[in-house]
Amino acid sequence: MNKVLVVGAGAAGILVALTAAENGAAVSLFEKNDIVGKKMGITGKGRCNLTNICSMSDFIVHTPGHGKFLFSAYERFTNKDLLDKLHKWGLETKEERGGRVFPQSDSAVEVRKLFYYRLRHMGVEIHLNESVESVRTLNEKMIVTTSKGSYEGTACVVTTGGMSYPVTGSTGDGYRFAQSLGHTIMDLKPALIPFTAQENWVHELSGLSLRNVEISIWKQGKKEAIQFGEMLFTHFGVSGPAVLMLSSAILRKKRCTYPLQMQINLKPALTKDVLDGRIQRDFQKYIRKQVENGMKDLLPQRLIPVVLDQAGVDGHLPVNQISKVQRQNIVDTMQALKLTLTGTRPLAEAIVTAGGISIKEINPKTMESKLVPHLYFAGEVIDIDAYTGGYNLQAAFSTGYVAGISAAGGEQSR
C-alpha cells in the first residue's frame, strides 16, 4: 500500500488526502493549526465561496496567474465534479451573483466540519497542531519531519498555501521546503489586495460601499485596467471585489508603477446627457435648497461634498444659482471621480499570493515535481492565482484531486 504524506490541511490538502485515500493509499495529513480548512473560513466574506458555475475555460480566463497550467487539472476535476461530491456528502449549496457558489447555510464552519468528518470516515490520519519542519528524500522515500517526530512515505504532497493571511497558517513554509529540494520560487507578490490612496477624503469615507460602479486605473493618460462592480472605501484607501480584481490586473503590468490614478464612474449606466437631465430634475425638485442637499437622491450623503469639491462647486450655493457649466462639471466628476493610488496593502493582507513554485518544474497532468520523484504540489503554493468569485478555491480543489490520485499511484508521470 502506498503511504502518502500531505503537508497542509487547507482546501488543496484536504482534497489530496481524501482522493488519495479513496484510491487506496494510507494517508497522513499534517496541519499546524488546530482545525482543518482554516483559510476557507475567510473566503466569500466568511461564507466560503466554494466555486463558480462558469465553464472550465472561463476558469482559465479568470486565472491571470498561469491559468493555462490548470487545463489538465480542470479537465480531470471540474466544478460539477466538486459539487457532485459535496452534494453526495450532504452539503446543500446555492448559486449567487456572478455564478458564485456558497453553502446553503452560509457557514464556512459547516464546510470545514464536513471535510473533517469525511477525512475521519476515509481513515486519514490527521495530525493537528503539528508543524512540519522539513521535507526530504531518502532512498526513494519521502521523509517529513515535524515538531513531534519523523514520518516516512512513498509520496509527499506539499499544500501549504501562500504568504497571505499568516494567521491562518499560510507563512510560506512550502516555499522553503520546495527550495531545499532544488525548486525555483518565483517572486511572491500580493494578489487580490486593497489599494492605499493619497487623498484624505478617502479616509473620511471609510466604511462606505458603492455598488454597480465602473472603476478604471490610469497611468500617464492611458487606461490600464477597468472593472465593474462593488467597491469599499477604507481608512487606508479602497477595497471591495472590483478593486481586488483590478489589483491583480495591475500586478502584471510592468509599466504600472505607483502612483496611479483611479477613476470611479458613479453612474456608468447613464450617458452624460441622461445624467445631466437627472440632475436638472433633482435641482428643480430641491430648488430652494443648497446644492449639497439637492443631490441627496443621487449619491450617498457623505460622498456629495467630495464630488462637489472635485467639480469646483461650493456645496452651500443655492440650487437656483448653479450655472450650466457648474452642472456639467458635476456630471463629469460623477463619471470620473479621481483619486491617487500610492500602492497596495502588505502581502500578509492579500487574499492570495501571486508567485510561488515555478510551474515549469511541475508536471501539470499529475502535479508531480519534475525535479524530485514522489514529490507533489497543489494549491496556492504553486505559481498560480485567480480573481475572486470561487476561482482560487476551485484551483486548489482541482490540483489537489489530481495530486491525490497521482501520489496514491493511480497515475504515473514518468
From TrEMBL:
Residue intervals of the RsdA/BaiN/AoA(So)-like Rossmann fold-like domain: 3-404
Domain RsdA/BaiN/AoA(So)-like insert as annotated: residue spans: 189-352
Pfam families associated with the record: HI0933_like, HI0933_like_1st
Claim: Signal is one of the keywords in the record: yes
Signal sequence extent: 1-20
Obligatory cofactor(s): FAD
SUPFAM superfamilies: FAD/NAD(P)-binding domain, HI0933 insert domain-like
Keyword list, A-Z: FAD, Flavoprotein, Signal
NCBIfam families hit by this protein: aminoacetone oxidase family FAD-binding enzyme (TIGR00275)
Protein name (Swiss-Prot/TrEMBL): Flavoprotein family protein
Species for this entry: Megasphaera paucivorans
